[in-house]
Write a structure and sequence with these properties.
The protein is 32% helix and 19% strand. The chain is of the alpha/beta class.
């Protein structure tokens, strides 16, 4: 974009669901394009890191999965990415959506991400969808309104 449209500034809101939440935060943390302004990041049913997910999904110490962390090519450590994002001049706003009955991501992870973001000076809108499973938040009737209000805040139109 900076080569093709060097004079154009673009405001962006990133969205990531589950593993994609880590990817969205990574993209925001690593963005070095001065014309690309990350104004917001929507994290739907996010997890803190792949390591935490392995420990949560496979808590038995006799299973090898929990010991694979040193061999991961990508940690998708959202807490680490948030601290990197907080050093940027333009700090994006975060929207975190937690599924109350998430069967994949442990229920402490989204509040932990909110805590880390807040500690790093990032504004956060936090929502919990009652009774929702991991893939059901987007189908909740209030979800489009949350996204619309969040987008308006991020782009200064509220």
């Amino acid at each position: 974009m900076s080569i093709r449209y060097p004079e154009k500034n673009v405001d962006v809101i990133l969205y990531g669901h589950s593993l994609g939440a880590g990817v969205a935060c990574f993209a925001a943390a690593k963005n070095s394009n001065p014309n690309l302004k990350i104004k917001g990041i929507i994290l739907e049913t996010p997890f803190t890191s792949v390591s935490d997910m392995l420990r949560g999904l496979y808590p038995q110490k006799w299973l090898p999965y929990r010991y694979l962390t040193p061999f991961l090519r990508s940690s998708w450590n959202i807490k680490e990415y948030l601290s990197q994002i907080s050093t940027k001049e333009d700090k994006p706003r975060l929207m975190i959506v937690q599924a109350e009955n998430d069967e994949i991501v442990e229920n402490w992870m989204a509040p932990e991400i909110q805590k880390v973001a807040t500690e790093n000076g990032l504004p956060v809108d936090f929502f919990s969808v009652k009774g929702a499973l991991h893939f059901e938040c987007m189908s909740y009737s209030g979800f489009p309104g949350w996204v619309t209000a969040f987008t308006a805040k991020c782009l200064g139109k509220s």
